[in-house]
Specification:
Structural class: alpha+beta
Number of strands: 5
Largest sheet: 3 strands, antiparallel
Strand content: 15-25%
Order of helices and strands: HHHEEHEEEH
Distance between the termini: 27 Å
Length: about 150
């Protein structure tokens, strides 16, 4: 890993690759956002610099996968999060709360129904069918949910 980071620095590559457990492009396709996501500048499968492709390596052949997306796509994390927020804004029930810190899960009937969060305006309870807590790699919320 150290050599890869040194190589990226030498090329001036700044991208951060985010991997998902589920095949990311397929999830985005099922969410009807794939075409827009693939048009975002910087989505590709190569380490690049400002002059173009710096490194192209075939790692695996995904042609046999039973999915529409027979590839892996990469983009910087901040661009991916901006893209997700933009897609969410298309829905009237979507609400993005920046700088809100998840404090604990709210449960009802043996299942998670939301969470308590600390915001700049004070503590709020968020009840929703889906609440995404982006609290990082060492997520206390993920641990509390038993995931």
């Amino acid at each position: 890993m150290g050599r890869w980071h040194a190589f990226r620095r030498a090329l001036g590559v700044r991208g951060l690759v985010i991997g998902t457990q589920v095949h990311g492009p397929e999830v985005r396709w099922q969410g009807a956002a794939l075409d827009g996501w693939l048009q975002v500048d910087g989505v590709d499968g190569h380490a690049t610099d400002r002059r173009g492709v710096a490194l192209a390596v075939t790692v695996a052949d995904f042609a046999h996968l039973p999915t529409r997306c027979k590839f892996i796509a990469m983009m910087p994390q901040w661009d991916f999060l901006d893209f997700l927020a933009g897609q969410g804004r298309r829905y009237p029930g979507f609400r993005l709360m920046m700088r809100a810190k998840a404090k604990r899960l709210v449960e009802s009937g043996g299942r998670v129904t939301g969470l308590l969060a600390e915001t700049e305006a004070g503590r709020v309870q968020i009840d929703a069918a889906l609440v995404v807590g982006a609290d990082g790699r060492h997520s206390t919320i993920r641990a509390a949910a038993g995931l």
